[in-house]
Design brief:
This protein is elongated. By secondary structure, the chain is mainly alpha-helical.
């Protein structure tokens, strides 16, 4: 079953799994406007996460450049000789 063909049973009375939906839950086709809004929000979240990861990586590399006299680096170079 693909996501496009899936019927949403979301709500407070929805079952924990969708193996056998009960007859008292009314299945409704997903609203295309809500799906588009959700997709847009997911893209915004992905961009924010990507920027945060890039920011953290940039800071990590800056610390490596700033600590080029770190004794750990000299120990590693002694083992290479």
């Amino acid at each position: 079953m693909t996501d496009e063909n899936r019927i949403s049973n979301a709500g407070p009375d929805s079952p924990a799994n969708d193996n056998e939906p009960s007859s008292n839950i009314q299945s409704v086709l997903p609203d295309p406007t809500m799906k588009a809004r959700t997709d847009a929000l997911i893209l915004v979240l992905a961009r924010l996460l990507g920027r945060q990861i890039a920011r953290e990586e940039f800071e990590r590399r800056l610390e490596q450049i700033a600590n080029d006299n770190d004794p750990v680096g000299t120990v590693a170079s002694e083992h290479e000789e």
